[in-house]
Amino acid sequence: MTTASRIDSVFDLDGLLTAEERDWQMRARAFAQERILPVIDDDFENAHFRHELVGELGAAGFLGMQLHGYGCAGAGAVSYGLVCLELEAADSSWRTFVSVQGSLAMSAIAMYGSEQQKQAWLPRLATGDAIGCFALTEPQGGSDPAAMTTTARRDGDDWVLDGAKRWIGLASLADVAVVWARVADPAFGTGGRAVRGFLVPTTTPGFTATPITGKLSMRASVQCDVALDAVRVPADAMLPGATGLSGPFACLNEARYGIIWGAMGAARCCLEAALDRSTTRAVFGRPIGANQLTQAKLADMLVEVEKGILLALHLGRLKERGALTPEQISVGKLNSVREALEVAHQARTILAGDGITSAYPVMRHAANLESVRTYEGTDEIHQLILGRALTGISAF
Fold it and tell me: Which family does the similarity line name (predicted)?
């Protein structure tokens, strides 16, 4: 019996899935094992983004797969979550790519764009012929997008954008950026300072994306600083359906939902590595898996992986019914990433010194999960969201 089948024999997830959901999961697992795993250690070491996989992800139907029409697959929320789980079991960078492309850039266009904007961009983004990014976070803003300083002002029939964004995934590779800015015009929001979204082709003069170097996490992915220096776009570049921070926040919740599943993929991979090592490494004349303390660690890791996936499945079923709340998403994001990191740390102890090498995926997952823990809302932000829901008092 393989390591994965031993885990599956304890946790029968298949019995809770439809045939279609299982098919999506198996397709994503095959993609991860055949196209990502053979190269990911080298890509992580060399900080290399493997651009040729983008079109393959599109051909597999994974980009914007939860959206309907415009070449998107129209898959259910659980199917999308399972794809996130399998991609992140290989590496967080590729689940992140699918999230940025599908849950942030494409969702923003699908939810808030005009019909012309949808027709222009969604089919190309779905196939991977074009790449999108989502420019919200600012160098000094971090977890406080309400402090946004990027502005958009009218100049004749055009909009002119000025400002800076940071940690923008895919920006240097993107063909279009969804840029959020404060609009200094009373006609476009209460008080004339409402946050609005703009579709900005990245070839527009004044748009500059610079990859951030020196990363010790998410090394097979690309995150950038973005400078907006008098970036001029036409009036119809504005997303007509989004006014205020509720627009970008709704997109962030789409991405957070994928993280709930994805982090459990990283955790499952770490558990598999630790379980395999526990039966093949012998110390004091017997496999380390024969020791009670090792078995206790394995049991605790399994429990957290099972709980996390069951929570993700529950939230997915709620999402499919249209009943998922932002607070419930915060529960899932907070729990999944926090517990995935703990699983990675426990797995590393079972792997002993070898656990810090690239012979095992655990340190790579642990490093990546530190980024996942930070983006789309830190632990503290989600704790404050839940604290407000429980007490009725905002402590932000």
Answer: Belongs to the acyl-CoA dehydrogenase family.
CB 373 within 8 A of CB 337: yes
Q: Domain 246-391 belongs to what topology? A: Butyryl-CoA Dehydrogenase, subunit A; domain 3 (1.20.140)
The CATH fold of domain 3-131: Butyryl-Coa Dehydrogenase, subunit A; domain 1 (1.10.540)
**Of 115, 272, 376, 380, catalytic:** 376
304 is catalytic: no
pLDDT digits (tens, 9 = 90+) for 103-162: 999 999 999 999 999 999 999 999 999 999 999 999 987 778 888 999 999 999 999 999
| Cα gap 84→191, rounded to integer Å | 40
Strand locations in the chain (E): 68-69, 72-73, 132-135, 151-155, 158-169, 176-183, 195-201, 207-211, 223-234, 282-283, 286-287
d(CA 219, CA 365): 11
What is the residue type of 24? W
| Architecture (CATH level 2) of domain 133-237 | Beta Barrel (2.40)
Which letter, b or e, does each residue of 256-269 get, where b requires 16 or more Cβ atoms within 10 Å of its Cβ? bbbbbbbbbbbbbb
